[in-house]
Design a protein that fits this description.
This protein is of the alpha+beta class. The chain has a domain of 73 residues: ApbE-like superfamily (T-fold). Strand 1 and strand 2 form a beta hairpin. The longest helix is centred in the first third of the chain and has 23 residues.
Length: 335
């Protein structure tokens, strides 16, 4: 009898050990990627998961969320709230997304001393409409007539209502909406159980955790004058990185007028070629990249150094590279 008990005991121990070992084995994570054209750029979502179906469902849901934000923030889609605000000068019952986008834009306007300003659309319309073809005198006169429409202090929010204080104003959310959409996608992925993900919308990239095995994500910064060349490579986890630059997006053949407008002058900002910001989320990185670009390398770097958990790389108009004090923590080895 005692011998039988010993045999049974040994079998039970073997069973427990076997089950325990099996329970600790995890399926290897596979990379799943999907790309779509959205917001005038390529949007790519990359996730690592051990199960194909949940990964694909999470990616689809994240893309739907990004589309929702685009339909709110577009100034070209007649159904979008941003378009309707520009057309009518007011929104009586604004959605949570448009309220957040505008409220955050007003905050970053303050943080950047007015250099990030979503009300520059009237100036953009002038340059896109051919103002660059006119003489300097005509350009300045036309801009002077338009400057009264520019200024975030002319936007009012009361509860759910948003309105312009001056008729003829227009906003553009191009300096913040992509970052906000990336963050929205990452939130959806996280809520659906994804722990390793990267969402890219052109120059705006946000990450969730790291790659499997704690390997950081790697992102390359291209040369604004030669996009086939790299200026730097960054490695990080659970951070966002955004780059603002004109990158061949000019209104004129002489490459003097581009889409990043200085709200104080009405002309294209010209002190930088590109600004790359690393921050805790993509909305923050996106808005700061635009604001610092307008501020220029000196004032922009002072701002970055005053902010917590924000680093930057600035390429100024003379191609001199400026790096914030903590940027080395994110540069790949050998740089």
């Amino acid at each position: 009898m005692k011998k039988s008990y010993k045999v049974i005991a040994c079998l039970l121990i073997l069973l427990v050990v076997t089950l325990g070992t099996t329970g600790c084995i995890t399926k290897p994570r596979t990379k799943f990627v999907e790309t779509r054209v959205m917001m005038d750029t390529f949007v790519t979502i990359t996730v690592y998961s051990s199960d194909e179906k949940p990964a694909e469902e999470a990616i689809s849901a994240a893309l739907v969320r990004m589309e929702e934000i685009v339909k709110v923030a577009s100034i070209f889609d007649e159904q979008a709230e941003a378009f309707q605000l520009n057309r009518d000068g007011h929104l009586e019952t604004a959605s949570d997304d448009i309220l957040k986008l505008i409220t955050m834009s007003l905050d970053y306007n303050q943080i950047t001393d007015g250099c990030f300003d979503i009300t520059v659309q009237p100036a953009l319309d002038l340059w896109a409409g051919g103002l660059w073809k006119e003489s300097e005198e005509v350009q300045q006169s036309t801009i002077n007539q338009t400057m009264g429409l520019i200024g975030s202090d002319k936007i009012a929010i009361k509860g759910k209502k948003v309105y312009f204080k001056v008729g003829g104003m227009k906003i553009t959310l191009g300096g913040i909406a992509k970052g906000y959409a990336v963050d929205g996608a990452l939130e959806v992925l996280s809520n659906m159980g994804i722990t390793h993900a990267l969402v890219s919308a052109g120059g705006d990239i946000g990450t969730l955790g790291s790659k499997p095995n704690r390997e950081p994500w790697s992102v390359a910064l291209v040369d604004p004058d030669d996009t086939s060349q790299r200026l730097a490579s960054f490695s990080f986890s659970d951070k966002a990185i955004c780059t603002s630059g004109y990158y061949e997006r000019y209104f004129d053949p002489d490459k003097k007028a581009h889409h990043i407008i200085n709200p104080y002058t009405g002309y294209s900002a010209n002190e930088c070629k590109s600004v790359t910001i690393i921050a805790e989320n993509c909305t923050r990185a996106d808005a700061l990249a635009t604001g610092v670009f307008v501020m220029g390398p000196d004032d922009g770097m002072k701002l970055v150094e005053s902010l917590d958990d924000v680093e930057c790389l600035i390429v100024d108009a003379d191609r001199v590279i400026h790096r914030s004090s903590g940027l080395s923590n994110y540069l790949s080895q050998g740089q």
